[in-house]
Amino acid sequence: MTDVLVFDVNETLLDLSALDPAFEGALGPGSRPEWFQEVLLQSFALTASQRYSDFSAVGRAALQLVTERRQVTLGAEEVDALLAGMVRLPPHPEVPAALASLADTGFRMAALTNSTPAVAGAQLGHAGLAGHFEQIMSVDEVQRLKPAPEVYRMAAARLGVTTGEMRMVAAHGWDVAGAMAAGCAGAFIARPGAALSPLDPVPDVIGRDLSEVAAALMARR
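Given the sequence above, the corresponding structure tokens read:
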């Protein structure tokens, strides 16, 4: 049983749909999901080519691509306002209670995010979740974006465990798959629209939200 849980942040703990009204007002329907998919695509391209840009820069570049694609012009202040919403995201409704239950059961918990340290701290502080984690870790430390294996190895080293003693909890199949490839266990949160790739290994814990994942993890102790 792996008692060290490491959580992704964006979409796993925090609800990006809170950005939808601002994005739709500036860029039109469906623009926020399109933007975040572009963020992930640019992140994967950087990782595959062994290059690095911090996640805030990736988000800004992705927004530029979406505005060009949609033939919309935004001023610098409008761009800053849209991206600033990332530090004011609310948690998914079940997340605070689920994290509290896991902590009460004795799990060690940390956060591991592509966001920069400053953004990650602001995000989890604003959402009222920072106190649940013994560490808030950023890929910025190794200058590689998830799902690069160096990220998960760094997290395990920071927590004083092997990757085999750590479980990655995420609502992104690619994040879970990356962690499992690095030797970790995985837990997948199958939020609406999220799915596991048939090319990836299936984690032994899957739930529709963090409450279901937490219940499964606690039942194994």
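Strands lie at 4-7, 108-113, 135-138, 166-170, 185-189, 205-207. Try to locate this feature in the token string yourself.
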